[in-house]
Amino acid sequence: MAEEWAADQGEPFPQHPAWGGQFDLACQPFFWIETAELGDAVIIVVGGAVDVRTADRFAGALRSALVRRAGVMIIDVSRAEVFAAPGVRMLDGARLLAGSGGQTLRLVVDEQGLLVRMLSAAGLTGSWKLFCDLGSALEAGNDCPGEVVRFG
Fold first, then answer.
1. Residue spans of alpha helices (H) in 11-126
2. Which residues contact 9 (CB under 8 A, 6 or more apart)?
3. Which residues contact 63 (CB under 8 A, 6 or more apart)?
4. pLDDT at residue 27, as a whole number
5. What is the spatial distance between Cα 53 and Cα 136, in angstroms, rounded to a whole number?
6. Would you say 93 and 101 are in contact if contact means Cβ atoms under 8 Å apart?
7. 39, 132, 133, 147: least CB-packed within 10 angstroms?
């Protein structure tokens, strides 16, 4: 059906090796993830869309960071434009594993509170150490409860 539409539009329909067929590249979400180590901390920075199509890559980065057994794991999702339920599920799983392994987990969120609203809807806001920026998350002590109280 999509191939017929593309043919009607006079546009080539690109091949995709994973599907063995063709699909529209414009439908693929923009997603990037970077991981770094700084002292006793592992930092994961995520941007773009964290959803059902990208959650496996996000989960892989979380698992790799947890395996390193760093004292602190900081996940910066302030650059995520979309953060859907699969991403929240991955975050909550990482929080539980980090806690059972004695690791401190900190979450850097955006000013608009996209993820804070998602966590609130899931009843998870009280479970996180939330920060407004990466610098604050890095400088915080282990007993710091986080700095984000609420977003307007």
1. 55-67, 85-100, 114-121
2. none
3. none
4. 52
5. 31
6. no
7. 39
- Chain centroid to CA 127: 17
Instruction: State how far the Cα of 40 lies from the Cα of 101, in Å rounded to an integer.
Output: 15
Does 142 or 44 have the greater pLDDT score? 44
44-68 tens-digit pLDDT: 999 999 999 998 999 999 999 888 8
Kindly state whether residue 109 falls inside one of the protein's structural domains.
yes
pLDDT at 147: 67
Q: Is residue 95 part of a domain?
A: yes
Residue 112 falls inside a structural domain: yes
Residue 76's pLDDT is 94
What is the domain range of residue 67? 29-139
Average pLDDT value over all residues in the chain: 78
> What is the number of domains present in the chain?
1
Cβ neighbours around 119 below 10 Å, total: 22
pTM of the model: 0.76
Residue 19 maps to a domain: no
What CATH number did the domain enclosing 56 receive? 3.30.750.24
